Amino acid sequence: MRRDRALRLQLLLLLWLAAIDKNPQCSAASDDPKAKELMDAINDGYQLRLTNWNKAIMNDTHSNLKLERILWSSKPPRFQFTIFTQLTVNRLPTLFNMCTTYTGPMSAAIFVSLVQQPAPYRLQEDQSSQLEEPSLAVERLSSPNMVLVDEAVQQVQEFHDKVESNPDICQLDVMLFYELYDSEQARLLYPVNYLRNYARLQVRTRLLAMIDVDMYVSRTLSEEMAQEGRVAHYENLCADRRATILPAFEPTRPGSKGRIMAMKLSKVSKSHLESMHGRNKEAIQFKLRVFPRGHTPTNYVRWFSESQTYKVSYKRFYEPWFITCDEIMPWYDVSFRGYGMNKIVLIASLNYYNYTFWVHPDAWLVHSPHLDTDVRKLVAREASDVNKHNAKLPPNALYRKLTLLFGKAKRGMMRGTYEPRVDPRMMAVYNKVSWLRSPPKLVGTPTAESVFI
């Protein structure tokens, strides 16, 4: 059995080496010299090491991302407004659908998680009865992981070629990252906010919006941004630190029928959407059934009757998607990994940085339903244990960590000392790539405690 497995691994390695010979650019950057410069700067100083669950949770060690591929669109941008997003390789079809509902520039950070065993335990020289912790440093990717990376490169290249060949859909820039974990448990630490920040770093327009890949964008937003002067209009709003909120909906049915309906809901008129909206109809407010306070401040009843933007107030746990400018948008806090609280803290920081919230009257988002991820199930189970059964979670429990991080962010905003945690390797890129816009330098105002109640 072991011999057969070894032979299979050797065959996989040979196939991988053959693929490199046939496609010498498979690990190279885009032909765009700026893209290659950016890739080199991001990877500068990278050292291969394993990410460990306990060290990440207990010691706040950073994710260790390697940028394996960068591809920039050669299509001219339809307008100067970019949506940026993040996803795993298996969700490329969802990204394609998003790319058909939004027809402007898009920046996507795509991710592959890899598991590799750490070095074996070794006896300490001076105390033979004690064992060292396994080393998290590794010399190279294992043969199976090399194959997985190469397969991901090929998938992303073919996907990008497909998008590039269609002049009617988005202009897509992509980065392909991987991270190496020492266990299946550690693999749950999906670096969601790292990926969002890197996708945002790649954006080549001033006006931008982070939209998760499972949210389809109404056709009305692309139509508006293509009109003369509309991008400049939103850029002018940035002087007042306005966040333009995009209301979010979801189909009332799950599964494949829900996904078909989500696409339809992104293409109808606002009046048609209103006729389809309601608990016993085709669409409802996003997360109305499970987490209404995440979007209720948007005021959906008022939205259907408005033809102009209107102001809403920040509320605790509000987590809408929004349009703003690069120079005033805070970074996503990379302490939040896996699932939970990552957008909530970002929106709370907008309030801390003196943003006001204005709802777009004619554009919206629609969630495409999908199965829960393993890490979302884990967080939900731990939250249920605490809230329903008063359980005491162990120190390395992810839900416990998320609540501690939220508490720390909240106290920082109340004291006026909050700063989102960022990846130092990413911030170092600004000193290496001269054409990047300067990173935001924001000063907040202490938030009243009552806001968080």
In words, what does this structure look like?
With 453 residues, the protein is α/β, with parallel strands linked by helices. It has a single domain, classed as Spore Coat Polysaccharide Biosynthesis Protein SpsA, Chain A (Alpha-Beta Complex). The protein is 38% helix and 15% strand. It is built from 15 helices and 13 strands. Strands 1-4-3-2-5-11-7-12-10 form a nine-stranded mixed β-sheet. Strands 6-13-8-9 form a four-stranded mixed β-sheet. Helix 5 (143-164) links the parallel strand 3 and strand 4 (171-181). Helix 1 (2-22) packs parallel to helix 5 (143-164) and helix 12 (342-352) packs parallel to helix 14 (398-415). The radius of gyration is 23 Å and the shape is globular. Mean pLDDT is 92; it is low at 9-28.
Beta-strand percent range? 15-25%
Q: Can you tell me the CATH superfamily?
A: Spore Coat Polysaccharide Biosynthesis Protein SpsA, Chain A
The top level CATH class name? Alpha Beta
Overall helicity: 25-40%
CATH architecture title: Alpha-Beta Complex
Rg calculated over all Cα atoms: 23 Å
Order of helical and strand elements: HHHEEHEHEHEEHHEEHHEHEEHEEHHH
Q: Kindly report the CATH topology.
A: Spore Coat Polysaccharide Biosynthesis Protein SpsA, Chain A
> Largest sheet at a glance?
9 strands, mixed
Q: What's the N-to-C terminus distance?
A: 59 Å
Mean pLDDT figure: 92
Number of domains: 1
**Rough outline:** globular
Parts with pLDDT < 50 across at least 5 consecutive residues:
9-28
Number of helices: 15
Main-sheet strand order equals 1-4-3-2-5-11-7-12-10
DSSP strand count: 13
Derived structural class: alpha/beta
